[in-house]
Design brief:
This protein has seven helices and six strands. By secondary structure, the protein is an alpha+beta fold. The strands form two sheets. It has a four-stranded antiparallel beta sheet with strand order 1-2-6-5. Helix 1 runs antiparallel to helix 5.
Length: about 180
Amino acid sequence: FSDRPVPRALIDECLQAAGSAPSGANLQPWHFTVVTDPKLKKKIREAAEEQERHFYDHRASDEWLEALAPLGTDEHKPYLEIAPCLIAIFSQPYHREPDGTKVKHYYPVESTGLATGILITALHHAGLATLTHTPSPMRFLNEVLERPKDERAYMLIVAGHPAEDAQVPVISKKSLDEISEFRE
């Protein structure tokens, strides 16, 4: 990623698109926290790298590590500080009305997934590069970003302009025939 700033208005437009996603009972069970503050990005990087170290050293099976090898990933995540914009996405199982009444959300994970997909598509359409980051567990995002404990950190999207010397791994995708069929 380049450290070149991304205009706030551009991110706002992409978030508006994400907010238009369909959701269970139209309750829109998501929250997006946009992080551009260098100090917060540093905290996020440090916490994410700690989780990633534990993953690579203790939790990931040899098979999983082998599957990740062609992508060149490891516990080092400098792009979390370099990219101008991090978007933390939270899924909300419920919300509270002003009077304190608890309202259950239906299909919060699926709905948040739809909104996230639209957000990534909007960011790409706007000419930005993205990277999805899902360290597990991601509770540190609730703490660092001061989000309620009942929200579930869903994903961290790194967004910005690609660096001049950006290298994207050469990966292939399944063919249309492999991922779809028509029943006519």
